[in-house]
Amino acid sequence: MRELFLTASVKDADFIMACAVLQGLTWMTARHTVHRILFYHGDPRPSALKNMRAFQQSRYSTLWKELSAQLLRSSYVLQTAYEVSPDSHFGTGSAMEFNLLPGTLRWTDLPDPMRDTPITSRKKIEIPDQSNLPTAMLDNGFRYKNETIQESYAFVRENVEFVFSRYYRLPDSPGRPVAALPAWTDLRPLDPAQKWVLNVKLNVPDDSQPEKVKKAHEELLAVKAELEKVFEFKVIDRRVFDTRIPPPPTIPGRGPP
Questions:
Q1: Among 111, 134, 115, which residue's Cα sits nearest to residue 124?
Q2: Do the Cβ atoms of 104 and 127 come closer than 8 Å?
Q3: Cβ–Cβ contacts within 10 Å for residue 175, how many?
Q4: Labelling 214: which of 96, 145, 197, 201 has CA 20 to 30 A away?
Q5: Comparing 227 with 252, which gets the higher pLDDT?
Q6: What is the pLDDT of residues 115-166, one digit of tens each?
């Protein structure tokens, strides 16, 4: 799948007005979601998935195989995302049993080089409704690195998605996720300015057909023109979205370790 998106930042003081604009544009109330996102780092040496237990019985086995092929090409940081509730998961003192919960595995590639355009285009794989993700990560050489909380408000018009996101810091817990989430009101945004990020997204399920990717690109440019008096969509350096892990250094005369 290919994901194309525009990016703009919105000040916290302007957030309610920005939501009102998109509510009028899409004729819907925003869907509010909160996700707990865990980051896993692969081995610097690229390798396919070694242990197949994670996806042999999955109805998304094709996506698992596609992910394995991508990991053979380069090592990456992967995400596992779990939807949580501010009312029932924060400040309760209870731990989450991630292996028992359905989560979404996320992989994104380095975006394509596209000069002088505010549109970011990249391949992505999302595998939803997967249990035992921490075990699958460990079995395949991925190490837990850190985590964050993502809060989002999403609007949809036809096949275009408008998503406001903000990320929150969690207490330090080296080597493992925090045992229990703090109270929702105690969270602080990662961005000191407390800005929201607006992404206007289009997905192209079959990106092997260039005309479909071109059409999605044109649709996003039309949305940009429609909203340019309200939002400033900026050109983003693709390296900001790079999730690749550099390969190990080559030692002269010895080759890679």
A1: 111
A2: yes
A3: 8
A4: 197
A5: 227
A6: 789 999 999 999 999 999 999 999 999 999 999 999 999 999 999 999 999 9
User: Around Cβ 162, how many Cβ atoms within 10 Å?
Assistant: 25
What are the C-alpha distances in Å from 74 to residues 19, 88, 113, 124, 257?
A: 38, 38, 18, 14, 16
Tally DSSP H helices, then E strands, for the chain: 4, 10
Specify the length of the chain in residues. Answer: 257
What 3-state class would DSSP assign to 225? helix
Task: Judge residue 113's burial from the number of C-beta atoms within 10 Å of its C-beta, 0-12 exposed, 13-18 middle, 19 or more buried.
Answer: exposed
- Scored b (16 or more CB within 10 A) or e, 204-229 reads beebeeeeebeebbebbeebbeebee
Positive or negative: CA dihedral 18, 23, 29, 34: negative
CA distance 22 to 17: 9
Q: Please write the tens of the pLDDT for every residue from 4-15.
A: 999 999 999 999
